[in-house]
Amino acid sequence: MKNIVRFGTSIDEKLLIQFDEIINRKGYVNRSEAIRDLIRDMLVAEETADPDTEAMGTLTLVFSHEVREIADRLNDIQHQHFDNIISTVHVHLDEHNCLEVLILRGKSKTVRSIADRLLSIKNVRHGKLTITSPGGHLT
Ligand code: NI
Question: Which of 16, 86, 122, 126 could bridge across to 62 with cysteines, CB 3.0–4.6 Å?
Answer without folding.
Answer: 126
